[in-house]
Structure formats: structure tokens, C-alpha cells
Automatic annotation (TrEMBL):
GO cellular component entries: Arp2/3 protein complex
Cell compartment(s), UniProt: Cytoplasm, Cytoskeleton
Protein name: Actin-related protein 2/3 complex subunit
Function: Functions as a component of the Arp2/3 complex which is involved in regulation of actin polymerization and together with an activating nucleation-promoting factor (NPF) mediates the formation of branched actin networks. Arp2/3 complex plays a critical role in the control of cell morphogenesis via the modulation of cell polarity development.
PANTHER family xrefs: ACTIN-RELATED PROTEIN 2/3 COMPLEX SUBUNIT 1, ACTIN-RELATED PROTEIN 2_3 COMPLEX SUBUNIT
SUPFAM superfamilies per the UniProt record, alphabetical: WD40 repeat-like
Subunit structure: Component of the Arp2/3 complex composed of ARP2, ARP3, ARPC1/p41-ARC, ARPC2/p34-ARC, ARPC3/p21-ARC, ARPC4/p20-ARC and ARPC5/p16-ARC.
Chief place of localization: cytoplasm
The species this protein was found in: Lolium multiflorum
Polar residues bias (residue ranges): 312-321
Family membership: Belongs to the WD repeat ARPC1 family.
A Gene Ontology BP annotation from the UniProt entry: Arp2/3 complex-mediated actin nucleation
WD repeat extents: 50-81, 140-172
Region (Disordered): 310-329
Length: 374
């Protein structure tokens, strides 16, 4: 499959997000700024530079309903940006963190957002109408190390996190006056703010890239040991499946449907995972397929030699060795971020974008290339 669009925006991109109508893109070029571009007359033009942070911007999310942008940074602060005319006006959110803010995501209803940090804590931020400001409640003393990624459940209450302590956790974020207890289902009504619903100890290494399926029935996250974990029915009776990857670890995951997911990471090439009718997950293929010429370099010759050496079976050796996945595709360095380009309320994602350490943003079109199962 070929990428639909590739654009070199910077030398390195930390994170990115799209406007609600996908006409504009906001990203951090690995510095203290957020750049907003718009596609005008067949080319990308820079419209705005958001510059309030004084250290690297590590997370961006653009609300689809509110059209508000939220940013977080290593400076331990967060800003909510509101468009007023031609300008973006920032509002400071006091996170009360003593370490860097690393990731951020609006909740499905966009009445709050979550921030993961290097302070072993998660901030749940919401707007307090009486005082006209954004405040945060902190989930403390649950993580043993840095929170690397966060993901909201479709019910707007449960929040999944991954950490460098190797664990994936699910918390209740219900806030009086912000959430309605009856709206998230009877099973969740008894949970209090910050209460841990589940803890998954599947990984023995750092964990990254947690994500829920569209229905919220399946949770997926990645381990730095080149593993990906799929967990069904997290709250009731978790049933986990572990998949070992033959290449490098993943950094982020996206469900494009209930039974198909895309993983991205250090291999610079998105991976497709799918579940069969019995719910068994497996690796399908790399998304950016490229033909590779055997023995193209000394490195590939060494790789083939090692493959023959360690690929020998007890019955005898084989002359056919599956070549390593080719590099140098749409991305040329680690992919750190994957963002859906969702239209309306659709649950099946047909397009998504990736960005990474090569400074490129790539838009992928699945509609005519991959059979997406519901």
C-alpha cells in the first residue's frame, strides 16, 4: 500500500493533531512552539505559531466538538487554546506537577482532558464555570514510574494508562458536577474518582501506546520488549493475548475498527493486526510494503547470514530465509504518533496520519487497500 500524502514539515516532529474538518494541522517541530498549517492552493501554508511554553511541547490534542487545542510541555504546564477571530488565545492550566507533562488527550465528550506525566501521576483537568478557569484533579500514588500514554474509554469515565513500570492501569475519572453517574452504565456507577479499576502486569519492560477499541471492549498496549497485548473485558474478567513481534518495538496503537488495529514504532512502518471470528489476534502485514533486493548491502548480507544461522531447524537447514523488513519507506525514522482522521461519528476509520523523528507527516488511506472488518 502507498501512503496518500507525505509532507516534510520539519527535521523532527514531537506530536501532531488535526482540526475538526481536517483542513489544518498542528504540530510541534521538536521545540517550544506549536505550528498550525493549512492546505491552500495545493500547498501547505503556515498560519499560526503558538508560543507560550518554554520547553519542548510533548503533547497536542485538537477538540473535534469544541475546536479547542490543548497542549502540554516538559515545562510542566498545559494551555487550552481558543480561537478568537484570527488569533489563538491561551489559558493556562495549573497542573501542579514537579516533572514534565508528557501526553494529553481530550475525553470523548470534551468536557475534560487527561495529562500523563513524569511525576508518576495523571491530571484530570476540567473547566470550572464559577471561577472561569481550568483546574485539575490528580490521580497520585498509583504509578511506580513515568506515565507514557493515556487513552479514554468511550464511556468518558474510564482512563487507561501505560507506564515505564511496565504496567497498564485503568482508572475511574468521575467528577462531581462534570459527569453524570447514570450515563456511563450501572457497573461504573460505584467507582470513585482516582479509584483503580484494573492493573495489567503483562509486560516486563516499559509499556507504551495504550488504546481502546471503538466499543471499549478491547484494550491494547505495547511493551518495549517488542510485544503487543490485547485484553478483552478489562473491568469484568480480563482475558489477555500476547503477540511477540519479530522486529522492533511499537510506540503507539490505533484501532481502525473493532477487529483491526494499526501499530507504529521503531520499525518506521505501520503494522496491521486483526482478530478472526473467534477473537484471536494476529499480525497481518506491514502497511508500507516495499520490495527489497537481497544482499543489497553488507548489513543485509549479515542479516541474511544470521537469519540462516539461527533459522535452522533440527531437521536440517533451509536455503530460503525471509528477508528483513525493508527500511526507507514513507517514514525514515521512528514513528511516535498516530492520529485518526475520523469523519462525523463513524466508528470505522478509513484514514489516519503518522508523524515521527524524521519530521514527516504521512496520511494513509485504507479504504481501497485494506478490507476493514466491522
Amino acid at each position: 500500500m502507498a501512503a496518500q500524502a507525505i509532507h516534510q514539515f520539519a527535521e523532527c516532529i514531537t506530536c501532531h493533531a488535526w482540526s475538526p474538518d481536517h483542513s489544518m494541522i498542528a504540530f510541534c517541530p521538536n521545540n517550544t512552539e506549536v505550528h498550525i498549517y493549512k492546505f491552500i492552493a495545493d500547498k501547505w501554508e503556515k498560519l499560526h505559531v503558538l508560543s507560550k511554553h518554554d520547553q519542548i511541547v510533548s503533547g497536542i490534542d485538537w477538540g473535534r466538538s469544541t475546536n479547542k487545542i490543548v497542549t502540554v510541555s516538559h515545562d510542566r504546564n498545559s494551555y487550552v487554546w481558543t480561537q478568537e477571530g484570527q488569533d489563538w488565545v491561551p489559558t493556562l492550566v495549573i497542573l501542579k506537577l514537579n516533572r514534565a507533562a508528557l501526553c494529553v488527550q481530550w475525553s470523548p465528550k470534551e468536557n475534560k482532558f487527561a495529562v500523563g506525566s513524569g511525576a508518576k501521576s495523571v491530571c484530570i483537568c476540567y473547566y470550572e464555570q464559577e471561577n472561569n478557569w481550568w483546574i485539575s484533579k490528580i490521580i497520585r500514588k498509583k504509578h511506580e514510574s513515568t506515565v507514557t500514554s493515556i487513552a479514554w474509554h468511550p464511556n468518558n469515565i474510564h482512563l487507561a494508562t501505560t507506564s515505564t513500570d511496565g504496567k497498564c492501569r485503568v482508572f475511574s475519572t468521575i467528577i462531581k458536577g462534570v459527569d453524570t453517574r447514570g450515563s456511563q452504565g450501572s457497573a461504573s456507577a460505584d467507582w470513585k474518582f482516582g479509584e483503580q479499576i484494573a492493573q495489567l502486569d503483562l509486560s516486563t519492560t516499559w509499556a507504551f501506546g495504550v488504546r481502546w477499541s471503538p466499543s471499549g471492549k478491547t484494550l491494547a498496549y505495547a511493551g518495549h520488549s517488542s510485544m503487543i497485548y490485547f485484553v478483552e473485558d478489562v473491568e469484568a474478567s480480563p482475558a489477555a493475548q500476547n503477540l511477540a513481534l519479530r522486529d522492533l518495538p511499537l510506540r503507539d496503537i490505533l484501532f481502525v475498527s473493532e477487529r483491526m488495529a494499526i501499530g507504529v514504532g521503531f520499525d518506521c512502518n505501520p503494522l496491521i493486526f486483526a482478530a478472526d471470528e473467534t477473537g484471536l489476534w494476529s499480525f497481518v502485514r506491514y502497511l508500507d510494503e516495499r520490495k527489497v533486493t537481497p544482499s543489497a548491502s553488507k548489513a543485509s548480507q549479515l542479516s541474511e547470514a544470521l537469519g540462516k544461522l539461527y533459522g535452522q531447524s533440527r531437521q536440517g537447514s533451509s536455503d530460503t530465509v525471509e528477508p528483513s523488513k525493508p527500511r526507507g519507506g514513507a517514514h525514515e525514522n521512528c514513528i511516535t504518533c498516530i492520529v485518526p482522521l475520523r469523519k462525523g461519528s463513524e466508528t470505522i476509520i478509513k484514514r489516519f496520519s503518522t508523524s515521527g523523528l524524521d519530521g514527516k507527516i504521512v496520511v494513509w488511506d485504507l479504504e481501497n487497500h485494506v478490507a476493514i472488518t466491522k
